Amino acid sequence: MTNAIQGRLAILLLGLMLGMAPLTVSAQEVAPINVNTADAELLTELPGVGPSRAEAIIEEREANGLFESADDLTRVSGIGETTVAGLEDQVTF
Q1: Residue ranges of the Helix-hairpin-helix DNA-binding motif class domain (predicted)?
Q2: Any idea which fold 27-92 has?
Q3: What Rg do the C-alpha atoms of the chain give, in angstroms?
Q4: Which of 4, 26, 68, 82 is 20 to 30 Å apart from 57, CA to CA?
């Protein structure tokens, strides 16, 4: 085989291998995040939680005490029942 053909086959094989590899980790493979101990950076890994909402979670926790359930997260401005429903399996207390 010529070098050009070998190079193309190598690129094709690499592309096939990368196409079959998972690109992201699903939420089921990640350990739940404890919202009572997590810092802002860790909280931003939760779906629907950006930097400002993460800071709001921490401020609420410090001002009014620990969260005991996912429903308690509705104490945080901007977190409603829809967001809570998406977080229930991804958070601990």
Answers
A1: 41-60, 71-90
A2: DNA polymerase; domain 1 (1.10.150)
A3: 21
A4: 26
Dist CA 36 CA 42 (whole Å)? 11
Tell me how far apart the alpha carbons of residues 62 and 40 are, in angstroms, rounded to a whole number. Answer: 13
C-alpha distances in angstroms, 52 versus 18, 42, 57, 73, 78? 35, 13, 9, 15, 10
pLDDT per residue, tens digit, the chain (93 aa), is 687 777 776 777 666 666 665 555 444 467 999 999 999 999 999 999 999 999 999 999 999 999 999 999 999 999 999 999 999 999 999
d(CA 54, CA 43): 6
pTM of the model: 0.69
What are the residue ranges spanned by the domains of the chain? 27-92
